Amino acid sequence: MSKIMLVEDDSSLREIYSIRLTAEGYTIVSAGDGEEALAVAVRERPDLIISDVMMPKISGFDMLDILRSTPETKDIKVIMMTALSSDDQRMRGENLGADRFLVKSQVGIEDVVNAVHDVLGDRVADGTINTGVGMNTAPVANEVELGGLDIRGSEVQ
C-alpha cells in the first residue's frame, strides 16, 4: 500500500483529499506548510507528495527544491497543485522536478485521484487500479460526505 503525504494549508481541502485517497486504499500523512512537510517527508518517507504551491513559511516550490536536493527525499514523487495557471509557474514546477503539475481551478477531485494513480503507476494494462489492497475493478463510491459537504465530482478551488 502506497503512502501519500498531503501538503495543504487549507485544512478542509486536506481533509477532503485525505478521505478520498484513503477510500482508494492509500495511507495518508499530512502537513500544513512546507516547513512541516520537509520534516514529515524525512520521517515518513512517503511514496508521493501532493503539495500546494502557495503556503506559509516555505512555498511548495522551495519545498520541492529542498526535497530534490536532499538524498533521503530526492526520489519521492511529487504532484504540485496551484491556483496559478501561468506557464511560468508550470515551467518552474517542471524544472524543479515535479512529476505532475495541476491547476486547482481546472481539476476536480477525481482528476487528482487519477493523477495519483498515474504517477504511482497503479494502473494495470486493462485500466483497473492496483493499490496493493486487492484489485479495484469497480469505481470506489462516487459520493463522499464531509460534514454535510458532498464532494462528489466537486472541483477543488
Walk me through what this model shows:
Helices cover 35% and strands 21% of the residues. It has helices at residues 11-23, 34-44, 60-68, 87-96, 109-120, and strands at 3-7, 27-31, 48-52, 77-82, 100-103, 129-130, 135-136, 145-146, 149-150. It is globular. By secondary structure, it is α/β, with parallel strands linked by helices. The two termini are 28 Å apart. Helix 2 runs parallel beside helix 3.
Proportion of residues in helical segments: 25-40%
Low-pLDDT runs of 5+ residues are: 133-157
Please describe the biggest sheet, giving its number of strands, its sense, and whether it closes into a barrel.
5 strands, parallel
- The string of secondary-structure elements, in order, is EHEHEHEHEHEEEE
Q: Which strands sit side by side, in order, in the main sheet?
A: 2-1-3-4-5
Assembly category: single chain
Tell me, briefly, the overall form.
globular
Count, helices: 5
* Rounded radius of gyration (Å): 15 Å
Q: What integer is the average pLDDT?
A: 82
How far apart are the first and last residues' alpha carbons, in Å? Answer: 28 Å
How large is the share of residues in beta strands? Answer: 15-25%
Q: What is the β-strand count?
A: 9
Structural class, by secondary structure, is alpha/beta
Which helices and strands occur, and which strands form pairs?
Blueprint: E1 3-7, H1 11-23, E2 27-31, H2 34-44, E3 48-52, H3 60-68, E4 77-82, H4 87-96, E5 100-103, H5 109-120, E6 129-130, E7 135-136, E8 145-146, E9 149-150
Helix pairs in contact: 2-3
